Amino acid sequence: MIEFGWGAATDIGRIRSNNQDRLLVSAPMFVVADGMGGHQAGEVAALMAVESLAENTTPTSVEEIVSLVDHANTVIVDRATDESSMRGMGTTVVVLVGLELDNGPALGVANVGDSRLYRRADDGLVQITEDHSLVETLVRDGRLSHDEAAVHPQRNILTRALGIDGKVLVDSWLLTAVVGDRYLLCSDGLFNELSADEIYTILDEVESPDTAARRLVSEACAAGGRDNVTAVVVDVVDIDRPQVASHDRVVEFRPALPTAVRRAPVVVTEGTVASKPVFTWRLGLFVGSVLTVMTVLIVSVVIYARSGYFVGIDGPEVVIYKGRPNGVLWFDPTFEESVDLSVAGLSPADLEEVRSGVTFDSLGEAERYGFELYFRAEKQP
């Protein structure tokens, strides 16, 4: 069993007219959700997410955590479907849960969007979760540095969120629980205002988790407060069966998508969501299927257009072409070789036949026909 200490704080910030962040601190479950959508729909989505997670039985595995997040997504989608004023609402979510596994206590983590989970390590701040955002995709692809991403004008564009589609992709982690570890769950309003060093300094210097959470939020607001700010600080105070831990604490990372697929962004703009994302997983599958069919058709056309040979006319000469007479779509036949015979030497019957394009399956067959034309021409008076 894990004993936790925790503290939490949230603030509207200095610019926004309402706070769309919501949090849950109910050991062994801790949650931060950052809502998005106009007409206060964002705060509704965030509240529904934390309420849905809170009302369920405490999960006993990472798989159950993912299932709870998936259920929360369904609840939000159903509400948005039933109420037109709620359409387009969505929310990020990051979840930390103490688990009692057969081999000992552990921590389960789930994440959708760009709210983050950090761990204070001896040598600095470690980000456990991966942002589901456009700039993070560009960082993983090597097209942006972390410093560039931190100030990028499109850093609020998300690639995943709860409430946008009936199927949500949830990344999850299993972590080893270690006494003395301190975790931070937060919305982007915190890390967009404070650097990793500033966040680490507060987590490292302030003993009380409640005081640390309040100070993080206060300093983020003082630094600009351009968004709602939420911080939940969680300390691992005691464990009945300590486990051997790796340096990064990660026992298993379970991404919802393979690395190659995760590189392709599916865009939802935070704060201005008015409809479903441009690409959903269903649309992605449909587009992929259409592209596959189109590729097969194009390849089939190319194979047909370039298959076979025919004997035809090129100016004053009789020649062999590769392809189909008159071409197929944009694929024209190409010159293969000369028959060494002039058109003037052909009989009227052979000339008419050659003009129509006599086709063959192989070059050898076309060459034999060319030889026959040549010999018939030689025999003409």
Topology:
Elements: E1 2-11, E2 21-26, E3 29-36, H1 41-54, H2 62-82, E4 90-91, E5 93-101, E6 104-112, E7 116-121, E8 124-127, H3 134-140, H4 146-150, E9 157-158, E10 171-176, E11 182-186, H5 188-191, H6 196-205, H7 209-222, E12 229-239, E13 250-254, H8 259-262, E14 268-269, H9 281-306, E15 309-314, E16 317-322, E17 334-342, H10 348-356, E18 358-360, H11 363-379
Antiparallel strand pairs: 1-12, 2-3, 3-4, 3-5, 5-6, 6-10, 7-8, 7-11, 9-14, 10-13, 11-12, 15-16, 15-18, 16-17
Write up what this structure looks like:
The chain has 381 residues and is an alpha+beta fold. It folds into two domains: 2-279, Phosphatase 2c, domain 1 (4-Layer Sandwich), CATH 3.60.40.10; 306-379, no CATH class. The chain has helices spanning 41-54, 62-82, 134-140, 146-150, 188-191, 196-205, 209-222, 259-262, 281-306, 348-356, 363-379, and strands at 2-11, 21-26, 29-36, 90-91, 93-101, 104-112, 116-121, 124-127, 157-158, 171-176, 182-186, 229-239, 250-254, 268-269, 309-314, 317-322, 334-342, 358-360. Strands 2, 3, 4, 5, 6, 10 and 13 form a seven-stranded antiparallel β-sheet that branches. Strands 1-12-11-7-8 form a five-stranded antiparallel β-sheet.
